[in-house]
Amino acid sequence: MRVTIMQPPYPAPGEAAKTLNWQLEQLQKLEVNSTDLVIFPENANCTGYTDLADLKRMVQNEGAVFVEAMRQTARRVNCTIMSGLENIGSDGVLRNQLTVFTPEGEEFSPYTKVHLVEPELVKGIEPGQKPESFLYKGVRYGAAICFDSYFPELFVEYAKQRIDVMIVISHQRQERPDILEFLNQTRAFDCGCTLLRSAPAMQNPDIGGRSMVIAPDGKILANAGGTPGVITYDIDPGARFMRAASYGEPDRIGDYREVLMVSRNHFE
């Protein structure tokens, strides 16, 4: 599976449209059958807005143009696009979600951010209730959004659901690179599968960014660093961390996630 991970620039105050234009340009550059999966970061339809009224206005206007471009690109390129979006439901409630656009014209939001930060709660954004994996074209995906990354129990739950690929869409605009790398390497190991992370690049390249492809054993396979860019990488959704079950037992080599699942004590 060929994946394309977007790392757009995070806008300066008042320049949110520049990030949307960068994202639109990247969609236009994609050629037919050039990739299988495209990933955009959290809040891709309204990056840079903190005021609630301005955020809603952008979601309903320029952000809506970007969402329509993703729909059209998924069909044109024959690829799936997964993007973090602020979605306004038919009930008028804002939800921070992963939304999926398929080449067949389907659109669904299988995951809603569970762990909200205080500014989101103040805005009235509604949290999700639990991590739920989703199956698409024979691959089982899990998803986490930004602050979710700090809660290991969420990823243990995905390991129980035997996901194949973990999608992490984020901002994390003030974390050091070493923290972002360590945190996501650990989450890949927790899930026992490949992890794909998309986040924006900050004006200071020494914080944020670090869109990545991480193997099930925690090895970083590709890293966009701290500047805007695009990662294209071929992954095997079926890849697992294989090792001996215990020291000195080379005959018991297998999927280490399954070893942990069998041995895990539950403390609920």
Quick rundown:
With about 270 residues, the protein is α/β, with parallel strands linked by helices. Helix content is about 30%, strand content about 25%.
Describe the overall structure.
The protein is α/β, with parallel strands linked by helices. The protein contains 7 helices and 14 strands. It has a 6-stranded mixed β-sheet. Strands 6-7-8-9-10-11 form a 6-stranded mixed β-sheet, covered by helices on one side. Strand 7, helix 5 (152-160) and strand 8 (165-169) form a beta-alpha-beta unit. Helix 1 (16-29) runs parallel beside helix 3. The longest helix has 16 residues, at 62-77. The radius of gyration is 18 Å and the shape is globular. The mean pLDDT is 93.
* Amount of beta strand: 25-35%
Radius of gyration (Å): 18 Å
Distance between the termini: 37 Å
Summarize the helix and strand pattern as letters.
EHEHHEEEHEEHEHEEEEEEH
- Beta-strand segment tally: 14
Instruction: Report the total helices.
Output: 7
Helix content: 25-40%
Runs in which pLDDT lies below 50 for 5 or more consecutive residues are: none
What order do the strands of the largest sheet run in, or round the barrel if closed?
A: 5-4-3-2-1-12
Q: Biggest sheet: strands, sense, closure?
A: 6 strands, mixed
Structural class: alpha/beta
Mean pLDDT across every amino acid position: 93
Q: What coarse outline follows from CA principal-axis ratios? A: globular
